[in-house]
Amino acid sequence: MLKLGVNIDHVSTLRQARYATMLDSPNAEPDIVAAALAARTGGADSITMHVRGDRRHVQEEDVSRVKKACDLPINFEMASTAEMLEIALRLGPDFVCLVPENRQEITTEGGLDVAGQQESLRATVTTLRRGGGMVSMFIDPDEEQIRASAEIEADMIELHTGCFANLVGEDHVDEIERLVDGARLGHELGLQVNAGHGINYRNIGELFKVPHLLELNIGHSIVSRAITTGLEQAVREMAEAMQGYPGEA
Q: Are the beta carbons of 132 and 172 closer than 8 angstroms?
């Protein structure tokens, strides 16, 4: 069964637009804990949260509150920095996904260059695994990056599907093939294969062509849908759209 990880970062984005300096206020809304619980009721299998260096949306305390109130696994997205490593070890999430981070970007764009940072990332992975969590690399579906992720002993890879979501025509078809090949290689190397970024209600069916996927991490599309349907229903609709994934091919 293909699992659904729901990224609730943009619930915090909306809150921060007005209450960035008033998080203890009873008026600070929307409530990220309520969002996590609604996602669980709607059928989420895990909750993804990204504490960025600039704290533009999720705050460290948000992760603590969700972890305490919601019994779903927490997937903690973070840059490989000393600050975030200390936070991850203290919070003890179930999974950690290492992602690139650029202060100028609106959201995470492109995969992590694991091949070019093997030694530093190996040290981060080793420390996180000693802390008891599983570690994923958010990477483009590129052979070099997949092999490098296995070499540094990551548990998982999350294939970046942003290009898949944004390209059209033959380029789009080619990107699906890259994802297919990347998923097969990751599986052969013993890595759990997840995918995320830009997945929505319209394109999700095309990802059924990609074998060996265990979990999709989806945020923006679900939160956008929730504005008109409510978060519980938006998650439920996405979970239903994922039914029928064949798994291996």
A: no
3-state secondary structure at position 105: coil
CA dist 50 and 100 (Å) reads: 11
**Each residue of 82-123: pLDDT tens digit?**
999 999 999 999 999 999 987 655 566 689 999 999 999 999
Tokens of 57: 């949306």
Are the beta carbons of 56 and 86 closer than 8 angstroms? no
pTM given for the model? 0.92
Give the three-state DSSP class for 79: coil
Active site residues: 50, 77, 197
Q: Which domains does the chain have, with CATH numbers?
A: 3-241 (3.20.20.70)
Nearest to 141 by CA among 95, 108, 187, 97: 187
